[in-house]
Amino acid sequence: MAEGAITNQIRTLRFLAGEMSQAELGQKIGVTRQTIAAIEAGKYSPTLEAAFRIAEVFGKPLGEVFQWVKS
User: Fold this and answer.
1) Angle 47-11-38 (CA atoms, 0-180°, nearest 5)?
2) What percent of the chain shows pLDDT beyond 90?
3) Which of 28, 34, 55, 68 has an alpha carbon within 20 to 30 A of 62's alpha carbon?
């Protein structure tokens, strides 16, 4: 299996959305602030459902929020 990592633009998108907090984003998609912080930091990969919900909050396609980077 190819090794790599999932990167994301969540911090940037939160900033562009009026500096939305991690807690606000978590509330919108039904997870904790700590979960958003871990996803944002790349320490935790979101479920597919959570990833789609995050993209929906920002009105972006999934591929603009999350990227797969081969190592």
Assistant:
1) 45
2) 87
3) 34
